[in-house]
Amino acid sequence: MKAYVDDDLCIGCGTCPEVCPEVFHMTDDDIAHAINTDIPEDVLGNAKEACDSCPVDAIDIDD
Ligand code: F3S
After folding, report:
1. 40 CA to centre of ligand 1 in angstroms
2. Predicted complex ipTM exceeds 0.95
3. What are the two backbone dihedrals, phi and then psi, of residue 33, each rounded to the nearest 5 degrees?
């Protein structure tokens, strides 16, 4: 599974890299970016929690 951040929606709240730093990080322009490789199995739960925690629903996780 992979994570995707819609950079038109992200308001840079910083929650996702806090909840799952293995998958999400903030870019220089304060928008979140997700790794473009498969989410490691051991952090998949955290990645999904980050997705659920996003206040503007900017994160998608799918195959
Ligand atoms: Fe942006 Fe949502 Fe993460 S607003 S910083 S994608 S939690």
Report:
1. 20
2. yes
3. -135, 140
